[in-house]
Structure formats: C-alpha cells, structure tokens
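This part of the workshop introduces the protein records we will be handling. A record pairs a protein's sequence with a compact description of its fold. Backbone structure tokens are a discrete shorthand for how the chain folds in space. The question running through the whole workshop is how a given chain folds. The record below serves as our worked example for the rest of this section.
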Amino acid sequence: MAASSSPSSPAEPGPTPPKRRIRTVVSVLWGLVALVLTVSLVAGRGEPSSDAGGPPHAPPAVPTAAPATSAAPAVPDAPPSSAAPHRTAASGTGPHLPRSRPVRLHIPKISVNAPFTDLAIGPSGQLEPPPADDTNLVGWYAKGASPGEPGTAIIAGHVDTATSPAVFAGLSQLRKGDRFHVARADGSSATFVVDDAQSFDKARFPSERVYGDTPDAQVRLITCAGAYDRQARDYTENLVVFAHLV
C-alpha cells in the first residue's frame, strides 16, 4: 500500500538528515521482515510427511472418458453417466437387493469398520474423494447403484493421509474369495466375495472395465496405489478390488 503524501517542503541540500536516514533504514527492515514471512508461508504449504515418512495420500479418482489431468490427488475420473444406473431389483440377474443407501462397510480381514458418506462428481469432472480429515470414512458414488442393487456400486477410500494410515491402508491384502459386508439403511446386510484385485496406471485407467454396468450386483473398492509423484501430488496408480454379491 502506498504511503499517504504530506505537504511539500523545500528541498534540503546535502546528506540525508538523520531522521530521514532512520526512516529509510526502518522501511528496509520492514521490507526484509515481509519477505521472510512470505517465504515462511510458502514453505508452510509444502507436503507434510506421513507417519511412514512419505507425502500425504488421498483417495482414488474415478474416470469420465479420459484420464484425469488434475495435479490434485484424487480417484480416477468420474464414472460415465451410463455407469451403474438406477434400476429396480427385478431387472437384475443373480442375487440382488432393492436399492438402499449403504450405512457401514465391514471388511473383517483388514479390520475395516467404517461409515459411509455420499460422493458426487465435482466441477473438475472427477469423483470427489471422502474428506481427508477423517481416516475412518469411505464414500460411495450416490448417483450409481447402491451396494447390493443390480449394477456396479463404487466405493472409494483413502489409503492414508498426511499424518497416518487411512481406512483402505490394507486393501491390497484382499485376495480372491475374501468376503466383506455392507450394512444398509433398510436394515439388511449385503455380503460380497472378492473376484480379483488389480492396480492400474492412472494414465491408462480402464474406465469401462471398472465402471461399466453389470446385470448382477457388483462392487468396486478403489484406493490409491503405486509410487507417489511429488510433482503431481498424486499416486501413479489406483488399486481396484472387484467383488460380487453372494
């Protein structure tokens, strides 16, 4: 901000008077202080280390048609609008349940017991991840199929945060045949068995395979995986667990 002007006074010849020199020195000192504060604030925005000494980690992203280009950690792009559409239970094949919002996810093998929050597609076209300040929270794509309903239900969670492991820290331990359960708002419980678990490069994420519609009730558990790219502030891969209702 510019200083307010004062009434003009005759020019004073010779060296700068002591008072004016003092004001000049003070101005320089304040300028240095401001510079130091600015550098400190910028440095304070750097990546905090996790308990394991690594960078902060966020949940997966979910792809639209092309891979995400955002530098923010996320889940692959958003599921296409045609993925996991709302359907009635009568339209499905195999075991299925009527639509009901999920309430809690239980994965006994990796000690997960977590509540759900709704996830939506944000302005960037990506599925917004669950809040990073809650390490024991999973989200589901609320405009898609609910877990147990015919179609592909999408469940995403963080692998860790800037300070600690998060809800899906152990997701990579799941193997074919493992079971997990989703408690639902209608009082029922949907049990799923794992069919496969694979990691995919985010730049070549197979959107149709992961998010494509299915006639039976299936679930995808998604989190981040692979190496952490500090420049992009994101993981290089997504881990996807494929499962079906039993």
